[in-house]
Amino acid sequence: MNPELDHLDVDNQAQAAPQEPVVKLELAVNDINLVLAALQELPHKIADPMLRKIMEQANAQLAPNGA
After folding, report:
1. What are the sequence ranges of the domains in the chain?
2. CB 58: neighbour CB atoms within 10 A?
């Protein structure tokens, strides 16, 4: 390791970066539908990743066996 160059080590910086906190919410299906409708008002390239995340998590929870 070279103390003068360690700050340039991108791999170590990525591993050391703090993880973004996660918040879990409990919402009624109607509330989720309202959030999804609001997100659909945004441009597709901005909203689509979030829409997919919400749908994936909701579908997993609403599956017949809960998984």
Report:
1. 22-67
2. 15
Is-contact 19 27, C-beta < 8 A?
Answer: no
Per DSSP, the three-state class of 16 is helix
Q: Pick from 41, 50, 57: which is nearest to 67 by CA?
A: 57
Cα(42)–Cα(35) distance, integer angstroms: 12
Tokens linked to 55? 């749908």
Between the alpha carbon of residue 16 and those of residues 1, 5, 9, 61, the distances in Å are 16, 16, 11, 32
Interatomic CA distance for residues 28 and 43, integer angstroms: 25
Give the per-residue pLDDT at 63. 86
pTM of the model: 0.62
